[in-house]
Amino acid sequence: MAGTRRISVATFAGALLVSACTSSSASEIESTSTTVVTTTTAAPATTTSTTAPTTTTTEPPIVAISVHGDLDGPIAQTVADALTAINDPRATGPVSEEFLAAMASAEGSLGPSYEAAATTAELETGGSVGVVTLGSGDILAIADEGDGWSVVGGHLASVGAEPWYGASPRRVLVLGSDARPGQSPPVFRMDSIHILTAVPTEGAGAILGYPRDSWVQTPYGTMRINALPTSGRGPDALFSFFTDDWGIPLDGYILTGFRGFTDLVDATIGRLEITIPIPIPTQKEFPGFRAGEQELTGERTLDFSRTRKLIPGGDFTRSFHHGVVMLAALTMLQRGEPADVPALLAELSRHTYTDLSPSDLIQLGVTAMDMELDKITNEVLPGTLGRSSGGASVVKLDPGYERIVADVIDDGIRNESAPESTAPEE
Known about the structure:
Elements: E1 6-8, E2 27-29, E3 38-41, E4 55-58, E5 66-70, H1 73-87, H2 97-102, E6 113-122, E7 128-134, E8 139-144, E9 149-155, E10 170-177, E11 190-199, E12 204-209, E13 215-218, E14 221-224, H3 235-245, E15 252-256, H4 258-268, E16 272-276, E17 292-296, H5 298-306, H6 315-333, H7 341-351, E18 353-354, H8 358-370, E19 376-380, E20 383-387, E21 393-397, H9 401-411
Parallel strand pairs: 5-6, 10-15, 12-19
Antiparallel strand pairs: 1-19, 2-5, 3-4, 6-7, 7-8, 8-9, 10-11, 11-12, 13-14, 15-18, 16-17, 20-21
């Protein structure tokens, strides 16, 4: 029986991002003040003919916050209006009710004016994303999904507010297709199947791998889990299997193939600095690897990620190594700044398939930059190698795997309340 690996190293969506950024032109926006609000209240009528005097209550005017600096007019106005709405709940602005509620502790604490700079990028999948850095050191995540810019998250640390980048925890299905160049990754078998979680307020998360040959009952019959996207079904079939059949709430998926993976690594990282846990023997298709620290090109990173033969644990260890790659990539990407995230996401959109919205992507991207590397676990579900009724080699997930999944999915963190797993022998 093969076990699983567990590690507290580093990553949420590591191998998914890049270090470059674009700035918009400078402008200064002064938001206009709001008219004084006046209400008149009459006392209840009595049985006499005398009417109580009318009283007038005057509220102080809403103080509009101004934003100026290295950002264009529409973005400056968006940020000014959003900050005004955070500072004074009577105001309205281009920001969600959920974000306003999360920023309630900042009410009345913001300054009257902020210097700011913005980096933005257009996505191949549609829409635009950006990061606004305020002179106070605070960060705002912005997105344009076709109807103008809005503030979709942020961290106002200067006034003691907790970071908010969408409902917590975040949960994303990350898929690596077995498709070779010239084949269609979305409708091919999946070599890599992981659920990534992140808890922004904790800076913590988890990488949970599913053995690709897991033998599961699906709406299309009993099959290996990695075959769900085949027969023209695509990644939506695998996504709905997790969400509908297994009841796992996911925000969306990110999928790439061999070519997309190597191009993404080359474009965002260059050479991946990684510590390989065990030596990898030479394979039929490529030379092996020594254990220890080394730098890998995108092509060699793919070679390492593909290896399952001649190593202890086989496919279980390979799935664990996928998490090692993600952790190593995040470690390198965190040397940059949140302002780098829009350009990273632009590269991600060029080399992957995803159903995540621009708002989701910028929220997740900035969250990844805030993750604490020693608070992210990397684990593969335990299972036993076996045979299907037709004789195919399959993995039968061990009893109790549901408790591990539930433990991670519940709050986004692998807690000690779930059964401990054992790492494959090296």
